[in-house]
Specification:
60% helix; single chain; 3 helices; elongated; mainly alpha
């Protein structure tokens, strides 16, 4: 059984950033260490989300370039059936 082990990384901070961390830590009753871990975790989550979104966007773009799209008219006609009791299935993509 292997447990996750914490490792140390050194981050050099400008005095202004260090002071701001100290003040915010005092205001939130948290240590500067906790604030830095939280900030890094949130940053990584946001950047990972952005990377996944970029990958998905590029994949959709490539599909569109290869004609896997619906025309405006086809989508409009399909949406017109919504809520009528005779809702049709999504129209097939081109090509």
């Amino acid at each position: 059984m292997s447990a996750k082990q914490s490792i140390s990384k050194v981050v050099k901070l400008d005095p202004d950033i260090r002071d701001r961390l100290d003040r915010l830590g005092e205001a939130k009753n948290r240590s500067p260490h906790w604030l830095m871990k939280e900030a890094i975790t949130r940053y990584l989550e946001q950047e990972e989300f952005n990377e996944q979104l970029n990958k998905e966007t590029l994949a959709r773009w490539q599909e569109a370039e290869h004609g896997k799209v619906l025309s405006h008219q086809a989508v409009s006609e399909w949406l017109d059936t919504w809520g009528t009791g005779e809702e049709s299935d999504r129209p097939p993509c081109g090509k």
